[in-house]
Specification:
3 strands, about 25% helix, three-stranded parallel beta sheet, single chain, alpha/beta
Length: about 80
């Protein structure tokens, strides 16, 4: 981060693994670490183990759930 080279952090999010509290904590931790661009990717079940099931987060949910991150956020389809 000290190099000045632009970068982004990506997180693949599944509702069974990432609740509102954990996303809020991650948003704050990324901000405190100097991250200025966070890309969220909704979990996609294709090719994943069956026990993970389907994530219930829609792209708009991810933006709302990560509002603690005060910098650039984007949701990309997997």
């Amino acid at each position: 981060m000290r190099s000045g080279v632009p970068f982004e952090v990506r997180t693949t999010v599944h509702s069974a693994l990432h609740g509102p509290d954990s996303l809020d904590a991650l948003a704050r931790e990324l901000d405190e670490s100097g991250v200025r661009r966070w890309v969220l990717q909704p979990f996609r079940a294709l090719g994943a183990p069956d026990h993970l099931g389907v994530s219930v987060y829609a792209p708009g949910d991810l933006i709302d759930l990560t509002s603690a991150f005060p910098h650039e956020r984007e949701v990309r389809s997997a």
